[in-house]
Design goal:
CATH architecture of the largest domain: Alpha-Beta Barrel
Radius of gyration: 30 Å
Helix content: 25-40%
Structural class: alpha/beta
Largest sheet: 8 strands, parallel, barrel
Number of helices: 10
Shape: elongated
Distance between the termini: 43 Å
Strand order of the largest sheet: 1-2-3-4-5-6-7-8
Number of strands: 10
């Protein structure tokens, strides 16, 4: 059986809170939990946002929505520097954890391309209408994960066309409802089927269920039978501190548990091909399937007739459908009722 391959993406986003040591702790916890990739946001604030962009509901984590600071000043305070990102990149290489980068602006993209050399890129829907930016990312010929939450089908289609025009065939759709924490009723996981059918490229999910809900550990698993290739899950250092992007993030211990659940679910799904039974099923057959036994006492030289035989659970040799191999055979010796039937019983 070929085991289904799922790659786990640990999304750190801004949960490092501007502290390189916390960022490295999150990376190490992601690696130990079994993540294959870590997703980071690299941002040059002057290129990304106007300084007077105000805070408000849905713009930052709930604990900072009423913050008197502008989002620009708040995020600027918790933004990691270029030297921090280089240190982080080197650390991830050391622990063999691949980095994918959501560069939020052109300056950050150029820095990432020249200095970080990531495994791949993440493109947010906020960049879907920046066609020159999309072309630059496409030309890297690296894997690119398209977050589609909030984007229209025509916008997604247009992005894919741009990548095809630039001969980049390494696109992956990351489907997910971007308002977080995501309500269960808004997940619409069956849309994955339509997205896969329409665009014919690999697909994954970016999950944003509230990290303090038990369902955050199992609801995303419902997407596994839909032929997804990636699951992205937010991770934070300590939910109690309510750092930025904490709402849908898991603590390291719960993230590890989630990865274990993913792997167990993959084992449970198994192989859809029904072409042969496995060793475990053979053992069950040998124990549970009925075998032929004698239905009464018979003397030596008796000729076996159908009425002499019955199928019962036993340790016999012949299965219930092998009557023809026994009927009209001549016994070598006396047998008793319920004795199992074996080939050496006959002349």
């Amino acid at each position: 059986m070929t085991k289904k391959k799922i790659s786990i993406i640990a999304e750190m986003a801004w949960s490092h809170q501007g502290n390189i040591n916390i960022a490295k702790k999150i990376a190490l916890a992601s690696k130990k939990a079994g993540a294959n990739l870590i997703s980071i946001h690299i941002t040059d604030m002057d290129s990304y946002m106007v300084p007077h962009y105000k805070s408000g509901k849905g713009r930052v984590s709930s604990t900072n929505e009423s913050n008197n600071k502008t989002i620009f000043n708040y995020l600027n305070e918790i933004n990691l520097s270029s030297s921090n990102w280089l240190e982080f990149s080197n650390f991830c290489k050391k622990i063999k954890l691949k980095i994918i980068v959501m560069a939020n602006d052109l300056v950050s993209f150029n820095f990432t391309k020249k200095k970080i050399h990531p495994y791949g890129y993440v493109i947010s829907p906020s960049n879907f209408l920046e066609y020159d930016f999309l072309r630059l990312v496409a030309k890297t010929n690296k894997k690119v994960f398209l977050r589609t939450g909030g984007a229209t089908l025509s916008e997604i289609d247009n992005v894919i066309k741009i990548f095809k025009q630039n001969k980049n065939k390494k696109l992956i759709i990351l489907y997910g409802y971007q308002n977080y924490p995501t309500l269960i009723k808004n997940m619409n996981l069956l849309r994955i089927v339509e997205l896969k059918k329409k665009f014919q490229i690999p697909i994954g999910i970016a999950d944003h269920i509230s990290g303090d809900k038990i369902e955050s550990l199992f609801i995303p698993l419902l997407a596994l039978p839909l032929d997804i290739k990636y699951i992205e899950k937010h991770i934070t250092h300590d939910r109690r501190k309510k750092y930025e992007d904490f709402e849908s993030a898991l603590n390291p211990k719960d993230f590890k548990k989630f990865v274990e659940f993913v792997n167990l679910s993959i084992d449970a799904l198994g192989d859809k091909k029904i072409n042969k039974i496995n060793i475990s099923e053979k053992k069950y057959r040998n124990v549970a399937y009925k075998k032929l036994v004698y239905n009464l006492n018979l003397n030596k030289d008796s000729i076996i007739k159908k009425q002499h035989i019955i199928a019962k659970r036993s340790d016999g040799f012949y299965t219930a459908n092998q009557l023809s191999k026994v009927i009209n055979k001549k016994l070598k010796f006396n047998v008793k009722e319920n004795d199992e039937i074996f080939p050496n019983h006959f002349y």
